[in-house]
Amino acid sequence: MRKIRLQKLRGDFEKLHMLESENISKYFIRVLTIYNQMKRYGEKMEETRVVEKILRSLQKKFHYVVFMIKESQNMNVLSIQGLMEKLQAYKERFKRM
Q1: pTM of the entire predicted model
Q2: Considering its fold, how many domains does the chain have in total?
């Protein structure tokens, strides 16, 4: 039963994409919920993989931010929390414009 549940969670993780109606915080909660469930079932996944998944699956309006983050950050050391903070900061900065 454990293997079956983990297999479903892996599929859910791979299918994740940010919905048009979602904000960054809600999307992160959805991603982290699946990530934490996978860890609970014994999946060993690097944070780097989660960070890369999030960057690949954001809405198109974030593509310029993704590019800037990838160009300015060492992706091997960027944490999930660090990514969320950067995305929130970009969102706030552009909200003021």
Answers
A1: 0.88
A2: 1
